[in-house]
Backbone:
C-alpha cells in the first residue's frame, strides 16, 4: 500500500470513526411496501397530426453506422399514401386508424430533476489536515461566501462530511458534536436555510458496537432495541470495519432508520451522503453488501424529500440498484490528492475520470446523477491544477451532468475560479441534465458530445496529451449531416457556420474547448438507441448479445512463386490479435510509467507499470475473448479483474522471494463471449508494482478460411466465404488503400472472390487484407421481446426515419406519427442486416412531432437509430 493510499484511508477512517460513535447506517432489498410510487396515467396526446404521409424509401440513411459506409436498401419500406396526412387516409365511414398516447413520464424525485450545485467540506478537511475543520463558524462562513459569490449561479447546497457527530441520544441516534456546534447544529442549519440554501450531512452503513451493546430503545417502535436489529453472527458493515451489519429482515431495523431520518428532517437536513457503499468502495466480491442499507435509507429519506447520495467508487454492475434507490452515486475514488497543505487534488485524479464517465454516462438522468466528487477549481493556489486543467475539470463535470459541488474554501475563491463556476452558459449545460458520451476514448484528443432536447449538441474537445494539438469534431461522428453553427461557450462567442466539421486549433495541454453546435435548416440529426432523448416503454434492454458490432478481420495471404525458391506456405491465423501495452486504446488511471529495453523477454520488450493501489487500466475490445498478459515477480501482488463492469476474481501476479521472474504470462483469460463490445478493467490491489505487458484479443471468425495462399506459378482466384451476410461487407483494404470492387474482388451472395490479377501484383511474402464489416450504429441496440413495448422520440422537424436491423428473429412493428398509425413495417429477413431504413416520412408541418415504434410480432424488436430532418 502506498503512502498516499495509506494517508487517504487513514484520514477517512479517522474522520468516519468519529461519525460512527453514534451510528453506521442502513438498507438493501426494500421491505414490502417500499417500492417506488406507481407510474402516472398517460397524458392526453394533444399533438397535431402530421401534414404529410410516409413515402417509399430505398435510400439509406446518411452514414448511421460506425464504418461510415452507407447501408443498402431496406428489406421492407413504407409506401406512399395518397393523401396529406396518415390520419386522412381513411375513407368516410371507414374504421378510424388507431391512436397511441404519449408515454407516461417515469416517476422522478422532484428534488433531483437536475444535478445539484453546492459545496462539500471533505476536501478542506483533508487539505487542512484537521477532521474538526467543520466548526459552526466555518460552515456559516462557507454559507455566506456561497451566497455572495455563487448564489446567483444557482449553488445552494452546503454539505458537511464525516466527523459532525460525537455521540448518541437515548434512542441510539447520532447527535451533533457539542464542541463543533456549541449553540447546536440546528442554529447552523437555520443560518444556511436563511441564506436560501439546503443543508447536508454524512453517515455510513451499519451500527456501531457501542449502540449495539447498549440496546437502546428505538424511537416510535415499542419493543424494538438497537441490540435486536444486528445480524447474527456479527458481520462487518463497512470498509473500515467500524460497525456491525444490520438485519433488515427484522422490521425493527427499518424503524430504527426511520427514527434517524425523522430526527434529521426535524433539524432541517435536506441531503444525506452515504459512504462506504458496497458493492463498490473497493469491495465488489459481495463479502460486504450494503444494498439492504441503501434500500432502507431510501425508503425513509424519500418520505422527507431528502436527497440521497451514495459513495464511493460504486460498482457499475449494480447501476440499476443505485438508480432505483438514490439520487446520485460516486463513480470513482476520492478526487483529493491527500497532500495536506500542498494541494486539494492533482491532474491524474481528474484524468482518471474520463474512462469512468465513458462507462457511466448512460445511467444518469433526471432523478439520479453520476457523481465525480468535489470540483476543486476555485483557487489556483490550492487546487493543484493549472488554469487549463481547472477549466477542463469544470467542462467535464458540466457536460457529464455531474453534481457541481465545490471543495475549496469558498471564502478564498480567486476571480478565475468564480468565473469558471458561474459561467452562465456552462452551468446551463450542466443543468440541462444530458450526460455527454465520447466519440472514442482510444485517443488523447477526445471529442465528447450530448444531443440536447432543443435539437442542438453540446460538444467538448479535450486534449489529454502532452503537447498542444488541433482537435476535430466531425459532424458524422455526432450523428449530424449538414451544416451547423458553432458557439464557443467559454468565450461566449459565435464562431460561424461549418459544413461537416469543426477544428479547435492548438488546444493546450490538458485544455478544452466547449461548444454549442446547432444544426441548420435541412440538416439531419441521427439519435442512437441509447440517447437520453429516446424514450422506452416496456421491458427493453441494451445489447445482451442481440447487437452486431462493426468490425474488421484481417485475412493473411501468403504470396510466393513455387517455380522459384519462394514457395508460399499457409500463414498463421489472425484471430488472435496482440495489443501492446502502449496501444492508444488502453485507458490508464493513475500515475503509470512505461519501461522499455528491459531484456527480460516481454512482448516488444516493454511494459507499463504503476505503484499506487487503486490504479487501473481499461480496454474496450470487440471479440469473443481476451488474455491479460503480464509478468510474475516477487515485487508484484494481487489485482482485481472486472469484465463489462462485473467483478470476476482477484488474481495473484506475485511470486515467492527467490523465485525467478516469469514474462509473458497470461494470468487471466476469458473465452466464448458473445461477439460484441466488451470492457476489461484491472485494478491494482497490493504489491509494490502492477504491470501490463499486452492483451491478446480473440476475434470472431467472419472468414472461411481465415488464411489464404496464392502461388504466382499457378495463379488462380481465391474464394473466401463470409460468415455474415454479403451485404454487410463494407469493403476490403490493404495498408489503408481500398481494393476496387468488381476489379480486385467480386461479391456474390456470401462469397468474396479475390482476383488472381490483383494478387499477382503483390510482393512475395505475407500480405494482410482487411475485410471491413458494417454493424449496428455505435455497435449497440436496444431490444425487447414483448409485444406492445414501444420506443418514442419527440422532435422538431419536417421528416423522420427509423433505421435499424432486419433479422430472422424479428417480425412486424407499427409506426405512429403524432399518435396516428402511419405504417406497419415487416422487419424480418433471411439474414441479419444492419443499418436499414425501415420507415421514412417527409413533408411534415414544421413543429414538434412524435414518432412511436411499437412491437407487434416476432421474437425480438430492435431499435438502433431514429433520424429526423431539421426544418427546411
Residues:
Amino acid at each position: 500500500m502506498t503512502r498516499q493510499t495509506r494517508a487517504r484511508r487513514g484520514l477517512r477512517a479517522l474522520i468516519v470513526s468519529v461519525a460512527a460513535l453514534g451510528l453506521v447506517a442502513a438498507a438493501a432489498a426494500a421491505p414490502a411496501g417500499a417500492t417506488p410510487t406507481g407510474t402516472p396515467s398517460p397524458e392526453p396526446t394533444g399533438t397535431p397530426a402530421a401534414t404529410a404521409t410516409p413515402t417509399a424509401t430505398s435510400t439509406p440513411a446518411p452514414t448511421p453506422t460506425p464504418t461510415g459506409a452507407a447501408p443498402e436498401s431496406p428489406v421492407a419500406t413504407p409506401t406512399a399514401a395518397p393523401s396529406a396526412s396518415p390520419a386522412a387516409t381513411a375513407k368516410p365511414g371507414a374504421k378510424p386508424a388507431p391512436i397511441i398516447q404519449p408515454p407516461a413520464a417515469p416517476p422522478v424525485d422532484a428534488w433531483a430533476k437536475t444535478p445539484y450545485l453546492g459545496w462539500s467540506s471533505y476536501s478542506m478537511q483533508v487539505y487542512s489536515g484537521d477532521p474538526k475543520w467543520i466548526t459552526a463558524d466555518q460552515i456559516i462562513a462557507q454559507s455566506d461566501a456561497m451566497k455572495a459569490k455563487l448564489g446567483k449561479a444557482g449553488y445552494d447546497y452546503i454539505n458537511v462530511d464525516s466527523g459532525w457527530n460525537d455521540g448518541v441520544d437515548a434512542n441510539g441516534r447520532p447527535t451533533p458534536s457539542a464542541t463543533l456546534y456549541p449553540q447546536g447544529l440546528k442554529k447552523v442549519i437555520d443560518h444556511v436555510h436563511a441564506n436560501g440554501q439546503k443543508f447536508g450531512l454524512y453517515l455510513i452503513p451499519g451500527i456501531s458496537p457501542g449502540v449495539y451493546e447498549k440496546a437502546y430503545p428505538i424511537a416510535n417502535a415499542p419493543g424494538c432495541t438497537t441490540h435486536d436489529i444486528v445480524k447474527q453472527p456479527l458481520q462487518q458493515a463497512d470498509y473500515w470495519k467500524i460497525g456491525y451489519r444490520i438485519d433488515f429482515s427484522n422490521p425493527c431495523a427499518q424503524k430504527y432508520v426511520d427514527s434517524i431520518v425523522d430526527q434529521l428532517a426535524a433539524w432541517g437536513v435536506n441531503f444525506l451522503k452515504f459512504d462506504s457503499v458496497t458493492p463498490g468502495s473497493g469491495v465488489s466480491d459481495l463479502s460486504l453488501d450494503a444494498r439492504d442499507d441503501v434500500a432502507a435509507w431510501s425508503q425513509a429519506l424519500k418520505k422527507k424529500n431528502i436527497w440521497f447520495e451514495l459513495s464511493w467508487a460504486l460498482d457499475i454492475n449494480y447501476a440499476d440498484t443505485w438508480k432505483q434507490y438514490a439520487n446520485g452515486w460516486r463513480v470513482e475514488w476520492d478526487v483529493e490528492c491527500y497532500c495536506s497543505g500542498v494541494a486539494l487534488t492533482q491532474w491524474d485524479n481528474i484524468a482518471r475520470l474520463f474512462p469512468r464517465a465513458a462507462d457511466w454516462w448512460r445511467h444518469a438522468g433526471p432523478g439520479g446523477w453520476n457523481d465525480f466528487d468535489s470540483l476543486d477549481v476555485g483557487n489556483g493556489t490550492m487546487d493543484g491544477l493549472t488554469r487549463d486543467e481547472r477549466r477542463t475539470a469544470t467542462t467535464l463535470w458540466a457536460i457529464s451532468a455531474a453534481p457541481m459541488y465545490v471543495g475549496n474554501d469558498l471564502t478564498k475563491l480567486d476571480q478565475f475560479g468564480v468565473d469558471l463556476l458561474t459561467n452562465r452558459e456552462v452551468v446551463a449545460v450542466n443543468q440541462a441534465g444530458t450526460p455527454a458520451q465520447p466519440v472514442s476514448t482510444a485517443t488523447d484528443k477526445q471529442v465528447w458530445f450530448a444531443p440536447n432536447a432543443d435539437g442542438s449538441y453540446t460538444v467538448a474537445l479535450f486534449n489529454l496529451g502532452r503537447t498542444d494539438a488541433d482537435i476535430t469534431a466531425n459532424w458524422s461522428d455526432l450523428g449530424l449531416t449538414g451544416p451547423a453553427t458553432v458557439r464557443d461557450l467559454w468565450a461566449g462567442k459565435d464562431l460561424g457556420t461549418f459544413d461537416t466539421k469543426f477544428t479547435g486549433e492548438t488546444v493546450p495541454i490538458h485544455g478544452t474547448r466547449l461548444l454549442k453546435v446547432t444544426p441548420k435548416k435541412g440538416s439531419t440529426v441521427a439519435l442512437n438507441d441509447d440517447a437520453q432523448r429516446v424514450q422506452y416503454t416496456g421491458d427493453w434492454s441494451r445489447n445482451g448479445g442481440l447487437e452486431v458490432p462493426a468490425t474488421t478481420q484481417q485475412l493473411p495471404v501468403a504470396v510466393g512463386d513455387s517455380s522459384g525458391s519462394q514457395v508460399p506456405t499457409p500463414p498463421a491465423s489472425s484471430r488472435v490479435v496482440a495489443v501492446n501495452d502502449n496501444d492508444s486504446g488502453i485507458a490508464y488511471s493513475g500515475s503509470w510509467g512505461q519501461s522499455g529495453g528491459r531484456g527480460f523477454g516481454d512482448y516488444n520488450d516493454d511494459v507499463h507499470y504503476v505503484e499506487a493501489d487503486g490504479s487501473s487500466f481499461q480496454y474496450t475490445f470487440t471479440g469473443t475473448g481476451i488474455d491479460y498478459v503480464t509478468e510474475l515477480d516477487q515485487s508484484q501482488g494481487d489485482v482485481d479483474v472486472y469484465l463489462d463492469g462485473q467483478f470476476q476474481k482477484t488474481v495473484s501476479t506475485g511470486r515467492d522471494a527467490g523465485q525467478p521472474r516469469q514474462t509473458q504470462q497470461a494470468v487471466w483469460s476469458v473465452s466464448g463471449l458473445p461477439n460484441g463490445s466488451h470492457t476489461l478493467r484491472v485494478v491494482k490491489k497490493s504489491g509494490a508494482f502492477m504491470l501490463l505487458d499486452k492483451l491478446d484479443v480473440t476475434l470472431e471468425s467472419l472468414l472461411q478460411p481465415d488464411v489464404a495462399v496464392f502461388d504466382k506459378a499457378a495463379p488462380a482466384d481465391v474464394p473466401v466465404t463470409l460468415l455474415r451476410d454479403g451485404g454487410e461487407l463494407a469493403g476490403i483494404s490493404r495498408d489503408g488503400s481500398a481494393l476496387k470492387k468488381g476489379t480486385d474482388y467480386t461479391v456474390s451472395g456470401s462469397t468474396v472472390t479475390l482476383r488472381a490479377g490483383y494478387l499477382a501484383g503483390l510482393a512475395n511474402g505475407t500480405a494482410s487484407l482487411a475485410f471491413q464489416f458494417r454493424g449496428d450504429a455505435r455497435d449497440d441496440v436496444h431490444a425487447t421481446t414483448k409485444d406492445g413495448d414501444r420506443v418514442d422520440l419527440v422532435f422538431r422537424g419536417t421528416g423522420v426515419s427509423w433505421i435499424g436491423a432486419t433479422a430472422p428473429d424479428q417480425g412486424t412493428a407499427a409506426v405512429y406519427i403524432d399518435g396516428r398509425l402511419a405504417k406497419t413495417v415487416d422487419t424480418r429477413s433471411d439474414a441479419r442486416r444492419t443499418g436499414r431504413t425501415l420507415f421514412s416520412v417527409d413533408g411534415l408541418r414544421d413543429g414538434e412531432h412524435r414518432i412511436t415504434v411499437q412491437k407487434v410480432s416476432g421474437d425480438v424488436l430492435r431499435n438502433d437509430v431514429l433520424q429526423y430532418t431539421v426544418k427546411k
User: Anything to note?
Assistant: Residues 1-7, 18-22, 24-94 have pLDDT under 50 and may be disordered. The domain at 445-520 is CATH 2.60.40.1180 (Immunoglobulin-like).
